[in-house]
Amino acid sequence: MTSTADRLVVAISSRALFDLSDEHALFERDGLDAYQAYQLANENQILKPGIAFVLVQKLLRLNRLAPETPKVEVILLSRNSGNSGLRIFNSIEHYGLDIARAAFTNGAPPYQYIEPFAANLFLSAHADDVRQALDAGYAAASILPSKSSQSDHPELRIAFDGDAVLFSDEAERVSHEQGLDRFHESEKALAQEPLSGGPFRSVLHALHRIQAAFPAEESPIRTALVTARSAPAHKRVILTLREWGVRLDEALFLGGRDKGPFLAAFGADIFFDDQRRNAENASRYVPTGHVPHGVANSR
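Now predict its structure.
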């Protein structure tokens, strides 16, 4: 049996997996009792796919491609109660999603179950839950209302911003506090010094372990770095990834250009960015997760 150390374990909320926008509006308007009564009355009505549904489908498909490779597991972490959550599991069964483990917290923050489930990543539509998970040291992203995945590629395609996502925000702090010119000077001077890891470093490593089980030309996963950096600040990034011993299939250094069209061209099933404005712009093109981490999200 594959240990959790060899798996990519993704914890996801019910509102990221399914379209619960009407139900959430009911909860916001009329309260918990009305919401739970509605869910019970409609528990056999199948929910429509949500923003991260295609991502989850492709993640779970990895297990069928080569059973001997490191496993992927998707776990449901939901603020529903077990009672109202039955509709969620009925929908999971309807779509044939191999999701067997879940925690229903009846309104309480669910991030405390990330560690015992050994999850590498937590995806939620609840921004406060995401912040709590990040503050506790876990990779997490808030799934924004986004354009649904239009990717017709068979691979799972995941794109990451660099600073404050894959890497720490140490370089981004220089840009915020001292300006772009000083940022470029600093990155050129420190080109040979690897960047520290950010909250999504472990996610990239987990994806790399799965990729390494396949010939490069047959990998079912394709990854991309999509960053506002440009030359000469690109060199430190490339050497950092080399030092980590991980693979990124594509690296786009955009020099401040709008990332959305490039993400659409890449065919991203999801993109992660720490800057809210960038994430909202990207969400017009591809499913997007905001990572509220680092200096750009100082409170």
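The chain has two domains: 4-143, 156-297.
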